[in-house]
Amino acid sequence: MNRDNPLELDGETMRRMGYRVVDLLVERIAGLDARPAWQGGDRDRLRAEVGETPPDEPADFDALVAHLADHVIPFAGSVDHPRFFAFIPSCPTWPGLLGDFLARGHSLFQGTWLESAGPSTLELLVLDWFKQWVGYPPGAAGLLTSGGSAANLDALVCARSALLDPDDDAVIYMSTEAHSSMERAARIVGFRSDQVRRIPTDDGFRLRLDALAAAITEDRSSGRRPFLVVANGGATSTGAVDPLRELAALAHRQSMWMHVDAAYGGFAVLTERGHRLLDGLGEADSVTLDPHKWLYQPFEAGCLLVRDGHRLGEAFHIMPDYLQDTVLREATDSDAGPDAREVNFADRGLQLTRDSRAIKIWLSLRTFGLDAFRQGIDHAMDLAAAAERRIAESETLEVLNPATLGVVCFRRSAERAASRSDSNSSAGAAGQPAEGPAPGGAPSEPLEERLERWNAELVARLSASGVGMISSTRLNGRYALRLCVLNHRSTWEDVERVLSFLESEPVV
Ligand SMILES: *Cc1c(COP(=O)(O)O)cnc(C)c1O
């Protein structure tokens, strides 16, 4: 150890600092249930707390960690909280978190084989698991990414490289329910907004095949090049799964690429009902998965898989002079597919410097075994289904879209409360009559507007109460509450507490 290097620490100090952090994290997880699921903060106040420019002098590590733990980190959503049902919850396992630390702690650079043969082998192994799960052949290839957005972007670049000529007037099709990251990817890559067509959905929010076929025919007849269909393997708003098998067949008849954005829903294939729901996933040309969502991995972990694995390397390979030492040994067995020998993962996507994300995935999956993950995913789907039944039986709530892949959409309803108070004047105290003036609202406020106001208020009040958190969306323009149960730690009591709050909180 160099005593003159102020950035170096002795082993004893390093251990003590590490234990401090581990203690803090373990205490946090143990105490999650008693903490609020969300805490907001005022920027000026928080800014005053976190301080200004870094001082030149050292400070006490424990005091700094305590400061972060008290004044910074709590002002956030706890996405792993058992009653965090907003957006997409994420609940990493402890071995996964330690795997992340292990990878970072070894400063692994996983861009090239030369610099990380072992970790790259592990990534290839994890990708092989994922390939099997989605029903891909051995010739498929992929990479772990920072998340679903990055995977969707890489998929688009790969599809373009595989199918398009530079002056094609290409058209991308996706449903009105597709995730924004896909449209953003199109923007980044340079597609014009008129090259992205949003296709309407059916009453289950699934892309309508007839509408897609009509759009493709129309575009062909005006000289455009129908290029890519993006299907939802679990739409973010509703959990809807597009008709994957039919879409793949249609896309391939039309010489188009079919990509499935299964960022949050994809790992449901591990369960029987998820596998049924995602039928046809393996027919897609590429698939996006997010291990940091329903595979219980810490941020960041996304994944892109490409069915014809060679396409991925063709799309991204570049060899600059300063990396010439990393040139791969030629694969001798040309039939063995893209994973036959060495892989420079930098040649499969955006990043050169890459984390070794496979370590946390491997470590957590091996520690618990796959059945434990299946159980977590199944449990979440059970809770969402039970939530749907509970909402359907409620006097003040109504289901707007049934539970699908852990998501159920609903709202506080006026009509149900009103019809109830018609037949029984003592009930319906929590709701207002469907017609007539509402106290606090404009006398002529239309029903839909009033319901939106009520429901938006409920979302905010639930967060502010600390009890839990949900988010909202729009279904055919109508404001909807959205409960997303993915967390393996959530119990029925957690779901029930949140639903009871939404059911009985007074609204005017
Ligand atoms: C979450 C999500 C994304 C974006 O993934 P990130 O990991 O947040 O970048 C894309 N598509 C769908 C369907 C998602 O649910």
Number of helices: 17
Going across the biggest sheet, name each strand in turn: 1-7-6-5-4-2-3
Query: Ligands in the structure?
Result: pyridoxal-5'-phosphate
**Could you state the order of secondary-structure elements as H and E?**
HHHHHEHEHEHEHEHEHEHHHEEHHEEH
Q: How many β-strand stretches?
A: 11
Largest sheet: 7 strands, mixed
Oligomer type: single chain
User: Roughly what is the average pLDDT, rounded to an integer?
Assistant: 92
Query: Hey, roughly how much beta strand do the residues contain?
Result: 5-15%
Low-confidence stretches: 332-336, 422-439
Helix percentage: 40-55%
Envelope shape: globular
Radius of gyration, in Å, reads 25 Å
Secondary-structure-based class equals alpha/beta
Give the termini distance in whole angstroms.
68 Å
